[in-house]
Amino acid sequence: MRTRYLINRCGKFGYPSCPEFAVEFFVAEIMEKDWTNTSIARAVELTMHRRFAIK
Q: Pick from 18, 20, 35, 41: most CB atoms within 10 A?
């Protein structure tokens, strides 16, 4: 699945690779929304950013 690949790719940029349970969590969150006209990479970026943003 391309979404799984994009989430795991973060390890190549100095971040720790996401554990399997985290990948499954983010894939589930991404699949809940309508991302029409949005790339998968952008959907992953926005979902992860929202989850880790300081509130």
A: 18
Contact 7, 23 (CB under 8 A): yes
Domain that holds residue 13: 2-52
pLDDT in tens, 1-55: 566 676 666 555 545 666 778 878 888 888 899 989 998 888 888 888 888 775 5
Axis crossing angle, helix 20-31 with helix 40-52, rounded to the nearest 10: 110
Q: What is the domain count for the chain?
A: 1
